[in-house]
Amino acid sequence: MALLAGVVGFRGYSGVELQKILARHQYAAPVLLEHRADSAPEILPLGHQGHQVLSTQADEVAAAGIGVVFLATPPEVSMTLAPPLLERGVKVIDLSGAFRLKTVERYQQWYKEDHSQAQWLADAVYGLPEFYRDAIPGARLLSNPGCYPTAANLALRPLITAGVIDRSAGVVCDAKSGVSGAGRKPSLKTSFCEVTENFSAYSILNHRHVPEVLMNSGLEEREFSFTAQLIPIDRGILETIYFRTQNIKSGAELLDIYLAAYAKEPFVRIYPEGHLSDLRRVARTNFCDLGIRFDAATGRAVVVACIDNLVKGAAGQAVQNMNLMFGFIETEGLL
Amino acid sequence: MALLAGVVGFRGYSGVELQKILARHQYAAPVLLEHRADSAPEILPLGHQGHQVLSTQADEVAAAGIGVVFLATPPEVSMTLAPPLLERGVKVIDLSGAFRLKTVERYQQWYKEDHSQAQWLADAVYGLPEFYRDAIPGARLLSNPGCYPTAANLALRPLITAGVIDRSAGVVCDAKSGVSGAGRKPSLKTSFCEVTENFSAYSILNHRHVPEVLMNSGLEEREFSFTAQLIPIDRGILETIYFRTQNIKSGAELLDIYLAAYAKEPFVRIYPEGHLSDLRRVARTNFCDLGIRFDAATGRAVVVACIDNLVKGAAGQAVQNMNLMFGFIETEGLL
Amino acid sequence: MALLAGVVGFRGYSGVELQKILARHQYAAPVLLEHRADSAPEILPLGHQGHQVLSTQADEVAAAGIGVVFLATPPEVSMTLAPPLLERGVKVIDLSGAFRLKTVERYQQWYKEDHSQAQWLADAVYGLPEFYRDAIPGARLLSNPGCYPTAANLALRPLITAGVIDRSAGVVCDAKSGVSGAGRKPSLKTSFCEVTENFSAYSILNHRHVPEVLMNSGLEEREFSFTAQLIPIDRGILETIYFRTQNIKSGAELLDIYLAAYAKEPFVRIYPEGHLSDLRRVARTNFCDLGIRFDAATGRAVVVACIDNLVKGAAGQAVQNMNLMFGFIETEGLL
Amino acid sequence: MALLAGVVGFRGYSGVELQKILARHQYAAPVLLEHRADSAPEILPLGHQGHQVLSTQADEVAAAGIGVVFLATPPEVSMTLAPPLLERGVKVIDLSGAFRLKTVERYQQWYKEDHSQAQWLADAVYGLPEFYRDAIPGARLLSNPGCYPTAANLALRPLITAGVIDRSAGVVCDAKSGVSGAGRKPSLKTSFCEVTENFSAYSILNHRHVPEVLMNSGLEEREFSFTAQLIPIDRGILETIYFRTQNIKSGAELLDIYLAAYAKEPFVRIYPEGHLSDLRRVARTNFCDLGIRFDAATGRAVVVACIDNLVKGAAGQAVQNMNLMFGFIETEGLL
Fold first, then answer.
1. How far is B58 from chain C (nearest CA, A)?
2. Is CATH 3.40.50.300 the right assignment for the domain spanning D3-145+313-325?
3. CATH for A148-310?
């Protein structure tokens, strides 16, 4: 019998993506959970029946036999919804930033808001499978990584661990994202006429995803410069990462580090030296593509990392985590 | 009587922009010069007469009373066309990279091609008016700056001159351009279906515009990391520039350096600290917009520079140079 | 001394376009009029001063010496603002649909709202200069045509007048518009991620612009089928108009009718038979481009009409009307 | 054992789509067939092996055990490749227009080219499963319908058969397509900068897809007006179809005709009256969505039909046909 997987925030872009992935999953089935009244039901073709929608009330969720709930909701909503579900034994995979950082202070510093569920921070497992695969199966509360940090950490962590980045010169991560990363709520900043034929930087050095990169890569804040920018496309994140190398003489050595780190990873692809991926190659996939260019004369290197922000950066990685938590094949529903 | 200004390459994107700007110029009038047979005349509305088109043959150009010729052509075409015109006393404003670098060796190193007109390299004046306004009026051969270097040099040179950039940590310039920068010739890389909903890096650390930035900013190659990337838009360049500061304590000091350097410049706009421009603000204008963000705790800074690649990055700056060469008001045709 | 021209709704897309056109007008100068408190002043470059903003209070407007006010506002706002201004002798050019139809009943039928200013309906002059040039100079209240009807009427009226359309078979106008036509207020329907890589029909047979076409072309409602559709672009309207001809034998005869009707019109361009314009050709211009294709074997014909919805479809035509009302050269500010 | 399915033209947009669909098909496996030397092999991630590529030589194809070949090639290439394969007993599904029309004269009239394989025209089965499901299993040479006719015929044929369209007034089909419909070969017309922020009509009354609509719907040429237009998007076709009704009094009657015709069809969806689909709803699916609006007062009706031109309009329908030809479940690989 299929695992019943609740989805809160199912009308948002990540929520729709979750529905799609779960609909083709062999061992799980989506159940939509409504956390607020909504006046505009979707228009369906004649004869097509919409999904049944349950409430997010924890007793009802548990009684319905739902084994895991995905929260594709803002942090403050996730903080409210997660604890009662967890207390009834329902596992939670939270796609918001509510439980990603390890302390209330850290959360307040970067999110500029209070955190009402401090006791759950320590319990939450950070779900980047490529690095924390062992901890994920035992998670009750799984905190799904941010979209930008997913790409940045996959690109940076193996190189930092290997000691080939000269941290004294700093690391620059110039990040660009499609508009779906801003969510589905209408705003002037994401209006078509403001975005088309435009390109803009919107968060320089102070993006709330920065501490997630620091936490996982081991970099200090002063060593890591990050800018988020808006591409006039629907989906996709490309990060161009600059650093000076040490202890290596060729790009092949950088590639070898990646190949060693990701040899068995189903969702990380490494390109031949000098070749790069782009956003079309990762669109609607759970892949993170990595490519490098190395300048031997000066030791400078650039890594280009690409993901689909709604898949590996959100819904796809969330299902990858679900697969690990419930003992399914890691790639189920994702290839 | 108006200055007759020849335009070679008038069907290309920079050439069309030159036609538009010259058509509204009070003291100059465009004359189209054809350097190759072309089979498809433009379809015009009934009763509308197309421009007369002359050849690029130097004697005919001189005989027609043309005082200046804009070359919106590839470098190898510019090398062929410029010398005979110059020898007949016709001034030349070249929008290609043919005469931007100062030595044949430098050209061969970055353009991977021979240079057939070494004798003209020394004579060419590099036309970035904000820095070389004094030399431009005397130019016979004016070399119009590249699109990427225009933004990068306007952003970097005053700060480097003021000594506030810690060059030992390196400067990163992450550059993004609209597709018109690649020219009008059809190719798979600029086909609609390959570009839309995509974003890609195409030239990392080895772009041929790099030596122009080094030459004008004073940076060494090992200090300057540059990546060019393709935005799915028609026009516009945004450069995100990262560096560590020295000798300053606030963003206001950076702004003061810019304000001092550009106080009298009609085409450079500086934004209040923490505010940035974007590509919509500079589209179809000759402005270069500069904005900064400074992190006082760590001394890191980011500058965002925006131009329209076809205007300040090509045709607009070319006319700005023509205005200076012929004693017209610098902003004529450009506001 | 310049005519002071007030602009209400100056932050909207038509309002910004009005500002641009008036800023380069030789005989008029824009004055911004605020009809509600607005919390977010635009960020300007350092040293650049914003426009002074006055209130829309009629006494103040008159006292400031403002001779004409453009209302780029919704119909219900225009109804409130226009009468007090008119009573103080200030001319009004209204870009909304408030005063386009001739009776309250007609307005209620198509706008599904009450009309509070019936007494002004008869007084308003419909400002399509190509047909009503004689009436416009005497207008106090000028009602600027809707964007869709501007293109449709310019395409249809001369042909209907000439009797070459077989009305019994009906006329189809399939209209497509860029997103700016929906205004600047954020909504899900105009959010980037909903519009990009999409195309949708949003108003079939019942668009409120239909009665404007009937009123000017002489067609009956049953003879005219109109659909409005959203193109994922910023600006531009293309209408594909289908009909059966009568009393003619060639496309040249259709062209002759257009040429006779528009021979002296500065803003209507007719293309050679079989050639069509497109939205790039009219973008940021006040032109309406018309092209035809005629099938001699069956007598069917298709007209393609293109305008920029913000220029000939709104702000540009409004200034064209101002020019006629105040005796300026009709094309001033618009070429 | 899986059916080996050859794909010629596998680098084109339809060919890539075929590869994707076949890769997830349970009973078939793609084999790439190269019909010309190609200099640029695709760059693959390290450790990922590309598909083996065979030649299109008919003996080799047969010897390799390939049971069916998809030709995603231009008509003149399909004419050359199909006969030798068919003679060796390999079934052929041709996505070009080579074998869609029934006579050489008809082909010459609309394609303006000779047809070299007249003997195969009669043998070819036109593969629109919703109408010709019985004939498809026995096909040797299956001619896959054009993208525009697929949507037009699904929209029109049931209504014409039911006699509810007043043909004397004519039927208008205003069709819009994404750019991938023009194929992958670079050209100025499909260059990004020419297409973005543009919209254009490119084939009025004389598109070569017209006879396919006439042939299947029963309409006469004089009764059917068709225009093809280019939307600045990657994929999708929306057709807005106008006609006058007869013998009906409500939109519900039109819907009933559709519901009766398509009750058991897995890939046709009918929307409630007054509601329409759009291109996002059908993107990357094999669905054809139909919606109507009916004006009871005048009897006019409009149908909006949406498909993905690369799926239901090409590769998806081709696999649907393969499923029928080989006795697989019709929806395999397509849901």
1. 33
2. no
3. 3.30.360.10
